[in-house]
Amino acid sequence: MFTDVLKSQKNKPSPRVARALEYFQALYQVEALAKGELPDGDTRASYTHRLRQQHTVPLLNTFKAWLDDLAPKVLTLP
């Protein structure tokens, strides 16, 4: 969805699209990190859970707050 908008805007995406894509990129970075090398004595599940709690939860909370703030500005009824 956001990537379709980005492609349609030629060279410069709108600030809203760019910001949303930054959130998605950050989320994918956490997932890539979770697939990396395990610390000694850790299981994949516990390592992934810990990374998501430390990084993904705060990112999603911030993203949701931004979307909640943005919604009244873009979702107006005629």
Automatic annotation (TrEMBL):
- Which Pfam families does the UniProt record give? DDE_Tnp_IS66
Superkingdom of the source? Bacteria
Q: Name it.
A: Transposase IS66 central domain-containing protein
Transposase IS66 central domain location is: 4-74
InterPro entries cross-referenced by the UniProt entry: Transposase_IS66_central
